[in-house]
Specification:
With 323 residues, the chain is mostly helical. The protein has 13 helices and no strands. The longest helix is centred in the first third of the chain and has 44 residues. Keywords: Membrane, Sugar transport, Transmembrane, Transmembrane helix, Transport.
Length: 323
């Protein structure tokens, strides 16, 4: 009787906790989809005369400062300040992902010159393949046959989209019409492949560090963003030409980018700590729909019927991976 009573009274409570966690993860991942999907269109929306009017280095620097301040405030509010006295051996590993993320954050802005937002969003899903390969080889995680098949389909989707958008010249087409089509240059394709490899390497390495150390996540974020701030500050100093002020060209849209990317970085650390880098990448894959919708609504991007093929292939790949 006691056993039956405990099971019946405890099961609803466990069921509610289970659903509560699912709702929390759903909100978190949905927010990441929205933020990531809006990033490239917002950058394009800030362009003046085809050029980004603000310094990408100052923007990334402000993002790192925001994440650092939020992490420090969280650490203070939770009363974990004693954990700051960690040995150097625990702190040093955070310099590696900070350097990789700093490079990629600047690369994202640069790539907008060589491709439209939806092309970047679709091709950036190739990071699923690079991350899975590193995830399997570096972390020793075994992937099922269906999961490798999903990655092959995803690679095929990237090839289809690249093939359909590499031809940029159309007879009789005006400059405004050309800018509203899906397009990517050969140089843009090279940059996005470099971006995907570095992204996969940084995600796998960061996941390993976050999960191998029993430290508060806010403290781990603090270490990560201290290095990130230092590296991006050096990048900003090197990029200074004396012709552009720190906040020159900033608008409400740029500040929205700063806030969104800071929040996305903090949410990403939660996913890597308690989930996996693969989960993060499928969030990015799903955000393609948000990206395409915003590109159509804000930028007048014309989505051709062929665009549905790689989009459907990415959806199928995500389904097979988590089947």
């Amino acid at each position: 009787m006691i056993v039956i009573h405990n099971v019946r009274s405890g099961s609803p409570s466990r069921h509610r906790r289970w659903w509560g966690k699912r709702v929390q993860w759903g909100v978190l991942l949905g927010l990441m989809v929205l933020i990531y999907g809006s990033h490239a269109p917002l950058i394009t929306l800030t362009k003046v005369g085809g050029r980004v009017p603000f310094s990408s280095s100052s923007c990334v620097l402000l993002i790192e400062i925001t994440k650092l301040l939020v992490s420090l405030a969280t650490l203070i509010l939770t009363g974990d300040l004693s954990a700051l006295r960690a040995p150097l051996a625990l702190v040093a590993p955070y310099a590696v992902p900070a350097a990789l993320y700093a490079f990629n954050n600047n690369l994202v802005v640069l790539m907008q010159i060589y491709m439209d937002p939806s092309s970047f969003q679709v091709l950036s899903n190739l990071k699923i393949a690079s991350t899975a390969l590193l995830y399997s080889s570096c972390l020793g995680k075994r992937l099922r046959y269906a999961q490798w098949l999903a990655l092959g389909i995803l690679m095929g989707a990237g090839v289809c989209h690249s093939y359909s958008s590499l031809d940029l010249e159309y007879p009789g087409q005006t400059e405004d019409q050309a800018s509203s089509r899906l397009h990517i240059t050969a140089w843009g394709l090279v940059l996005v492949l470099v971006y995907c490899f570095i992204s996969g390497l940084a995600a796998v390495y960061t996941e390993r560090v976050l999960k191998s150390q029993r430290l508060p996540l806010s403290l781990q974020n603090l270490y990560l963003y201290v290095f990130g701030l230092a590296i991006n500050f050096v990048s900003y100093l090197l990029s200074m030409g004396g012709e552009q002020d720190f906040l020159e060209g900033y608008s409400g849209v740029v500040w929205a980018i700063v806030a969104g990317q800071a929040a996305n970085g903090l949410l990403m650390s939660v996913v890597l700590k308690h989930g996996s880098g693969i989960t993060r990448l499928f969030v990015i894959s799903c955000s393609m729909l948000v990206n395409a919708l915003l590109s159509w609504a804000l930028l007048g991007l014309q989505l051709t019927p062929f665009f549905l093929l790689p989009t459907s292939m990415i959806g199928l790949a995500a389904y097979l991976y988590y089947l």
